[in-house]
């Protein structure tokens, strides 16, 4: 190969300045879209976190606390509910139990 043929081969394998600038501009556009997508993903994550916190608050506020009343443990309680003695409670001890709700007439 002579010198001009070598130069032509090099020219074809090496991108021109215009090609490099064109490629860089396409990369800038691509990176802008990537940045926008990342920003949207971050916003979605924050909104989901906020939604989960709101759902927890709603659950806390919507649950009605049970009313408790004092009850003295009897022999009958221990007979009917053996787990009472398994928990170490004895006849005559006072405990708090959910208040019985009767049917409305």
Provide an overview of this structure.
By secondary structure, the protein is mainly α. Helix content is 64%, strand content 10%. The chain is built from four helices and two strands, in the order H-H-E-H-H-E. It has helices at 3-13, 17-62, 75-80, 83-86, and strands spanning 68-72, 94-98. The protein has a two-stranded antiparallel sheet. The radius of gyration is 39 Å and the shape is rod-shaped. 0% of the residues are buried. The model has no long low-confidence stretch (mean pLDDT 84).
Unreliable runs, pLDDT <50, ≥5 residues? none
Query: How are the strands of the largest sheet arranged?
Result: 1-2
Strand content: 5-15%
* Global morphology: rod-shaped
Mean pLDDT: 84
Given the helix and strand composition, which structural class is it? mainly alpha
Give the radius of gyration: 39 Å
**The biggest beta sheet, please?**
2 strands, antiparallel
H/E element order: HHEHHE
The number of distinct helices, counting runs of at least 4 residues, comes to: 4
The tally of strands reads 2
Task: Please summarize what this structure is.
With 105 residues, this protein is mainly alpha-helical. It has 4 helices and 2 strands; from the N terminus they run ααβααβ.
């Amino acid at each position: 190969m002579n010198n001009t043929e070598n130069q032509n081969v090099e020219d074809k394998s090496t991108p021109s300045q215009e090609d490099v600038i064109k490629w860089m501009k396409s990369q800038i556009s691509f990176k802008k879209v990537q940045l926008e997508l990342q920003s949207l993903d971050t916003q979605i994550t924050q909104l989901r976190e906020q939604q989960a916190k709101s759902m927890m608050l709603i659950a806390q506020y919507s649950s009605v606390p049970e009313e408790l009343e004092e009850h003295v443990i009897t022999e009958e309680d221990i007979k009917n509910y053996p787990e009472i003695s398994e928990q170490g409670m004895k006849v005559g001890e006072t405990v708090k139990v959910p208040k019985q709700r009767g049917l409305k007439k």
